[in-house]
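Methods — Computational structure assignment.
A single polypeptide chain was analysed. Its primary sequence is given first, followed by the predicted tertiary structure written as structure tokens.
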Amino acid sequence: MSTIRVVWGSASAPTAMSSYDAALADAGVENYNLVSVSSVIPEEVAVEAVGTAPDLGPAGNRLTVVESRATTGPDTGSSASRVSAALAWARSLGDGPGLFYEAADETGSEDVEERVREGLAAGQELREWTFDEPRVAVESSEADPGTYTTAVVIAAYGGSVPIIPE
């Protein structure tokens, strides 16, 4: 299996879906049909935090992902709100299997990194693996008043594959 790439992005737009699409574009995965899986990293697969995805195949293909996503609606108050998405991961020693954990916040709270670390630690306790140090990617964005804003952090498993079998 090829590399799992951790990518992230955020954007504001006039609708919730358009802000999500724009955040996916910021992360470089807007042209794929994302298929979410739970959170297990297969053994002997590299995980790289790259920020923006390279070309992962033709538009319209299926891309397997673990996704953290937060979207906030138009702010009617005088101050902008904040959205944050976080993804934490850790591998078991010796290129063994690992875990991803996601957390998202649409209220402006600053504890999304702490919560994702706590979730990952809880998942690690369920397994009899010895883990490396965890890594975390966080994407946060201030929402412009009157718009929707989305933040995403995505682990993209390898390249894309055709969504319709031949």
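Note: The mean pLDDT is 92.
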